[in-house]
């Protein structure tokens, strides 16, 4: 603009990515050199240690000293597990296992993996008694054919996109009347979501109002959610389904709220941690797989 030749030295601005990357690499090399020197002092006899100390006092080039020590000294292998930081990290990553093999993870500062969580609640049973074939999970309707209709719609449309739970484990427990991978909250949330895809009058809370589709099942899900606040796997899954349902009805703010609760509860349960059967024999392979499915479903939903 002013016909003046300008020159800019990108290295002078240490806020830029290139400069930061170089600074980090320099610090990493410096830290590595210091690590070699300290390891040599620990492992060498006193006479050799005195030579190293003398060299440090007269020469600031620690990189050259470290390189010389690497070539001439057999240093013991250092593993991350030998550092205090790695020890603390390994402790912090351990979740708390309850007596019923439920998993809890209250954050990286709690270290609750060292203790067994106290159990002051008995296993929760469905609000509605389980009928033959285990299909009476809701008080909204006792029409088994209608429930199957809504379930088929859910697995045909929302489930392939938002896989928040294992279809096989859920249906098996639903038919058997078990509450490990199925609950009244999750069933009502699914039915509320799938009503959006049904043209039946029974799918509406108000027969003449198409916008009320699924409201009766959703109200039942909210009632159960308010009465039962203990975090567990099916509650995380139900919150995710409720978020999808609210967003599909154009209620984005409500959908965000359920999605936020879903993700926070997933982190509390430690679903983001890799827990294998080999590490924790009390956790079955199916439970490990369901935990993975649920976490990545929550991640995709949040994203």
TrEMBL record:
Q: What Pfam families does the record point to?
A: Fungal_trans (PF04082)
Q: Which domain of life is it from?
A: Eukaryota
Keyword annotations for this protein?
A: DNA-binding, Metal-binding, Nucleus, Transcription, Transcription regulation, Zinc
Ranges where the Xylanolytic transcriptional activator regulatory domain occurs: 151-303
Where do the TM regions start and end?
Answer: none
Keyword Transcription present in the record's keywords: the answer is yes
UniProt keyword Transcription regulation, yes or no: yes
In Swiss-Prot or TrEMBL terms, this protein is called: Xylanolytic transcriptional activator regulatory domain-containing protein
Its source organism is Cryomyces antarcticus
